[in-house]
Amino acid sequence: MRRIRLKFAPYIEVEFVDRDLALRQVEEWAKEGMVNVQVVYGPEGCGKSAWLKQSAELLRELGFDVIYVNPIEKEVMAETGVTDVKTRLAEILREAAENTWVRVAWAVVDMAREIIRLA
After folding, report:
1. Could you read off the pLDDT of 55-111 as tens digits, one per residue?
2. What CA–CA distance (Å, rounded) separates 76 from 24?
3. Phi/psi of residue 97, each to 5°?
4. d(CA 116, CA 36)
5. How far does CA 47 lie from the centroid of its chain?
6. How far apart are CA 47 and CA 102, in angstroms?
7. Which one, of 60, 102, 51, lies nearest residue 78 by Cα?
8. What are the CA-CA distances from residue 27 to residues 55, 60, 62 (Å)?
């Protein structure tokens, strides 16, 4: 499997090592149509967010629609061909601009559940 590089600054890309097994697991879940929630946990700074970003990139490369939300870092990425999803996500973010990012995260989770239900 090729290594997925992540941009951390305009001119800095990082290539992680020893992620093959974890990324293969994500690919396997995607190909099996897995819809069960997985919990990712570990100490601060161990690479959880980076692995999730790499997973999002891998899924995009495999042709999946991807919505990545990190409420702690206030980061949202939406890569989907479904215009209504992009529009709704933008609406959620506008509505939540006055509110906490926790509400954004839960709204996105609710939207993802709806997408899965409709699929």
Report:
1. 888 888 888 888 787 777 777 777 666 667 767 776 777 676 666 666 777 777 778
2. 24
3. -55, -30
4. 11
5. 14
6. 22
7. 60
8. 8, 11, 8
Q: C-alpha dihedral over 69, 72, 73, 79, to 10 degrees?
A: 0
Contact 109, 96 (CB under 8 A): no
Question: What is the amino acid identity at position 19?
Answer: R
3-state secondary structure 19-81: CHHHHHHHHHHHHHCCCCCCCCCCCCCCCHHHHHHHHHHHHHHCCCCEEEEECCCCEEEEECC
Confidence category of residue 9, pLDDT binned at 50, 70, 90: low
Phi, psi for 78 (deg, rounded to 5): -130, 115
Tokens of 111: 């939207």
- Model pTM score: 0.58
